[in-house]
Design goal:
nuclease; single chain; EC 4.6.1.16; five-stranded mixed β-sheet; Trna Endonuclease, Chain: A, domain 1; alpha+beta; MutS, DNA mismatch repair protein, domain I; tRNA_intron_Endo_cat-like_sf; 248 residues; tRNA-intron lyase activity; tRNA_intron_Endonuc_N
């Protein structure tokens, strides 16, 4: 299932300004302004000036918050987005209540209890973002994420992403019987998305959540599609020959 662009000029617009260039501009701008995110419960708040506001929207990071300040715009970042900007792109610092930047391990230890399966979801998010996919929550489709080839204003999401790890065990329980596969594939097909499963494999035994344990996660991807018998049958010449009709 290929990309479904929104309008005739959408694909051309995306080719002129690919997501990799947009993210690179965002990275340079945030580093230049020494941007800092503020921990706020289950999110991170990031202040942006006018230029950064436009680039953050183009790069699809965060959600704008209505505020009374005219010279800046606040964005609400998810935990995955904030960690990615901080320790993968290294373009923002994240501070706590004492206004001191948190280390990578401190940030992971803060975020992990806030969200179930956070380390594996973070690894999956990072895996897709590094490949320049725009990643958004996928709960409305019964999956963990949806992945866009470019900005959602230009293209529909292409993949519905399920994240599965060895540590999930019976707590997760997704796709353990064929009926689960069938229902999930039917749902993805009804909204014109391809089911992408990311298996997060942990190498070694790391009891505590830390920066080094994240490096020991490997990702295996599988694309799951429905098997359509009509597309798999071989033609052995058993079909009747079509009669030739002369033109009147």
């Amino acid at each position: 299932m290929g990309s479904r662009w929104k309008g005739k000029a959408a694909e051309a617009t995306a080719l002129v300004d690919p997501m990799s260039k947009i993210v690179s501009r965002l990275q340079s701008s945030l580093i230049k302004s020494d941007s800092r995110g503020i921990l706020s419960g289950y999110n991170v708040l990031l202040a942006a000036h006018l230029e950064q506001t436009e680039i953050l929207n183009q790069a699809c990071f965060g959600r704008p918050i209505i505020a009374t300040e005219k010279d800046k715009q606040w964005f609400q970042l998810s935990l995955e987005e904030a960690f990615y900007l901080c320790y993968v792109m290294k373009c923002i610092k994240i501070v706590g209540g004492n206004n001191c930047p948190l280390s990578e391990t401190e940030l992971l230890q803060y975020m992990a209890p806030k969200k179930d399966r956070f380390p594996v979801l973070l690894k999956a998010y990072t895996y897709l973002r590094i490949k320049n996919w725009v990643v958004k929550p996928g709960s409305q489709y019964g999956v963990d994420f949806v992945a866009y080839r470019h900005h959602p204003a230009l293209v529909h999401s292409e993949y519905a992403v399920l994240v599965i790890s060895e540590e999930d065990g019976d707590e997760d329980g997704r796709l353990r019987v064929w009926s689960d596969f069938h229902c999930t594939l039917r749902l993805c097909g009804s909204v014109a998305k391809t089911l992408l499963i990311l298996f997060i494999i942990k190498n070694g035994d790391h009891g505590d959540v830390c920066s080094s344990c994240m490096d020991n996660f490997n990702v295996e991807e599988r694309i799951i599609t429905r098997w359509i018998p009509e597309h798999s049958r071989e033609n052995h010449g058993t079909e009747p020959k079509k009669s030739f009709k002369s033109q009147a």
